[in-house]
Write a structure and sequence with these properties.
This protein is α/β, with parallel strands linked by helices. It has 15 helices and 13 strands. Helix 3 (66-85) packs antiparallel against helix 4 (89-106) and helix 5 (108-122) packs across helix 6 (135-144). The chain is globular.
Length: 409
């Protein structure tokens, strides 16, 4: 178990210890950990003092034995390798994903025991789940131990049944009406329909002075349309061929490539000669600052990057073809349906969309009004749950005091 640095609390609760929270995440891709860290910004001050982020694959299941250790961490490593190295990761992962679901179902009792033992030893006041596959096991064991739980679904659709939406969830939140409806049908005690995924507060605001200073530092030409190319925390080798295609854009552009953890993609892009100015970056903690500089984002339809750009007011051009990860297809369709951007499946569609935006910047949405406010909604639901935890503690304390007084009569 590993504690993480969180935002410093602004005040301390004097009368009671801070509630203990465990957030279960995974490191397959960057999205689940990003969601977990985003949640920290919306927790009440006192709750931030005792939050632990836990990867159950690496920190619980891997402790069962050498074979389990390999299996527990192999899936995440393979997923990330596919993202960084394989152009057609979607169909491959769809098949492998079903295989991992089968393996987990075969080990259901063992996983239940390991998760249950962990939760019984830790006894948190709140269990938050931001990952699929193991969500049902974690919720089931939390319920057995009478622990409060909250599942936050970061995908719009549950591609494989019974992997994201557990039966009889204590609290369930999603930005998909279909997912919320499914959770209700499975006996969820309380559901929350969000207007968008959980992302950091920085994507809902804009610092004009900071962005102008950053533009000067990067020596950007503000007469050109600034294009941000971002395919998530593990990037994609497709970014190199995309960079070549951008050479045929008719409008004057400059491009910022964010390559995340993929050093090979960044190196290939830096060696590539382009007729337009470009900047390349690796992993960026404050990608929201770079989004303030751009007029359009090109990327994959993940619930992180795509919706972060939408919240910033950027029109998005999202790749949607036979190689798209199955859990991300619904995001692209949603973005188009709401008028936040367009999709492309080949270079010509990409260039048509980019030329239209670059030649008419009036089509760029009003940055002052984020089209969804999951930041406010997430803060509200967490405040309510933690208030209920505090009330429950007060009731328990009152009951104990009454019992003690009765014992002295």
């Amino acid at each position: 178990m590993s504690d993480v640095d969180v935002l410093p609390p602004r005040s301390k609760a004097a009368e009671a210890p801070a509630p203990k929270t465990i957030v279960f995440l995974a490191d397959a891709g960057a999205g689940h950990r990003t969601t977990a860290k985003s949640l920290l910004h919306y927790m009440p001050d006192e709750a931030r003092e005792r939050v632990t982020l836990v990867n159950p694959y690496a920190e619980i299941l891997a402790k069962a034995g050498p074979i389990d250790r390999v299996m527990a961490t192999f899936g995440e490593k393979l997923y990330n390798l596919l993202l960084m190295k394989v152009r057609g990761a979607g169909p491959i992962w769809y098949r492998l994903g079903h295989l991992f679901v089968h393996i987990i179902k075969r080990k259901e009792k063992k996983i239940d025991r390991l998760v249950g033992d962990y939760l019984e030893a830790e006894r948190p006041d709140l269990v938050i789940v931001v990952i699929p596959l193991l969500a049902a096991h974690i919720v089931r064991q939390a319920r057995r131990l009478s622990l409060r739980s909250l599942v936050i679904m970061s995908d719009m659709e549950e591609i494989v049944p019974d992997t994201w939406i557990p039966a009889r969830a204590d609290n369930f939140a999603a930005f998909s009406e279909t997912a919320v409806s499914r959770a209700k049908s499975l006996g969820a005690w309380r559901t929350w329909l969000l207007s968008g995924p959980v992302i950091r507060p920085g994507f809902f605001t804009r610092n004009q002075g900071l962005s102008e200073g950053l533009a000067r530092r990067l020596k950007l030409d503000r007469g050109r349309c600034c294009v941000l190319v971002f395919f998530g925390g593990y990037a994609s080798p497709k970014m190199v061929s995309l960079a070549r295609a951008l050479a045929r854009v008719q409008a004057p552009i400059e491009v910022i490539f964010v390559c995340g953890h993929s050093e090979s993609v960044r190196s290939d892009l830096e060696r590539l000669q382009t007729p337009y100015p470009k900047r390349t970056f690796g992993f960026i903690r404050r990608i929201d600052h770079l989004m303030d500089l751009a007029q359009v984002m090109i990327g994959k339809p993940g619930p992180g990057a795509a919706f972060e750009a939408v919240a910033k007011g950027l029109p998005v051009l999202l790749e949607l073809d036979g190689t798209t990860l199955p859990q991300e297809r619904a995001n692209a369709e949603y973005v188009v349906r709401r008028g936040f951007g367009a999709t492309f499946s080949n270079d010509e569609e990409l260039l048509d969309g980019l030329n239209a935006i670059a030649n008419d910047r009036k089509t760029i949405p009003d940055r002052a009004r984020p089209p969804f406010r999951s930041d406010l909604e997430t803060r509200k639901l967490l405040e309510q749950i933690y208030a209920e935890i505090a009330d429950g503690r007060a009731e328990d304390s009152g009951s104990s005091s009454t019992a003690e007084q009765a014992g002295h009569v």
